[in-house]
Amino acid sequence: AICGHGCKYGECTGPNKCKCFPGFTGKTCNQDLNECGLKPRPCEHRCMNTHGSYKCYCLNGYMLMPDGTCASSRTCAMVNCQYGCEEVKGEVQCLCPSGGLQLGPNGRTCIDIDECSTGKAVCSYNRRCVNTFGSYYCKCQLGYELKYISGRYDCVDVNECVTNTHRCNLHAECLNTEGSFKCKCKQGYRGSGFDCA
């Protein structure tokens, strides 16, 4: 079985046929499946989609049970948690539906952790970190694009001279560089390459 475009989060089961791992979808299994939009809904109250998975959380005054259901709880109602609560050894704690969120100073609401600035995010050298509410993702650095090459996805240099996305002067030559490009005025012209006279 050969899949020309690859199966990012799945396995190749036939000619250009991918079987996606749970939580992923698309022809090449490169898209996150939004489980929160499925019928029947996976969570009783609220659902937060995460990369390749999802998290359930409850309305204020309810407690999240191990099976994902929400049980009415007077203690939770009293604590007034934004995303429901859980009881640990008789102590009530407010919950945050994602590891990328942390309890705020009031102990009831959840605030975003910027993984990109705290250094918690792990992106390979040719990718940059983009923070999202409750998580982050890695995007190709500027001047690079995501391509499927020799069995895997990688960020490869965009040749601005070929794609015509450079801003070189009409009387300049475009020279491609890793992640960027340079402009050099042609013979008989002088200037920066963006301006030639």
Structure description:
- This protein is mainly β.
- The chain folds into three domains: 1-32, Ribbon (Laminin), CATH 2.10.25; 33-110, Laminin (Ribbon), CATH 2.10.25; 159-196, Laminin.
- It is built from three helices and 18 strands.
- The protein has helices at residues 74-79, 115-118, 160-163; strands at 10-14, 17-20, 24-25, 31-32, 46-50, 53-57, 62-64, 70-72, 85-88, 91-94, 101-103, 110-112, 127-132, 135-140, 144-149, 152-157, 172-177, 180-185.
- It has a two-stranded antiparallel sheet. Strands 3-4 form a two-stranded antiparallel sheet.
- It starts with 9 loop residues before the first strand and ends in a 12-residue tail after the last strand.
What tags apply to this protein structure?
Growth_fac_rcpt_cys_sf, secreted, calcium, Nephronectin_domain, 197 residues, two-stranded antiparallel sheet, Laminin, mainly beta, elongated, single chain, EGF-like domain
How far the N terminus sits from the C terminus, by CA atoms, comes to: 57 Å
The total strand number stands at: 18
- Spans of at least 5 consecutive residues with low confidence: none
- The CATH topology annotation of the largest domain reads as Laminin
Produce the secondary structure layout.
Elements: E1 10-14, E2 17-20, E3 24-25, E4 31-32, E5 46-50, E6 53-57, E7 62-64, E8 70-72, H1 74-79, E9 85-88, E10 91-94, E11 101-103, E12 110-112, H2 115-118, E13 127-132, E14 135-140, E15 144-149, E16 152-157, H3 160-163, E17 172-177, E18 180-185
Antiparallel strand pairs: 1-2, 3-4, 5-6, 7-8, 9-10, 11-12, 13-14, 15-16, 17-18
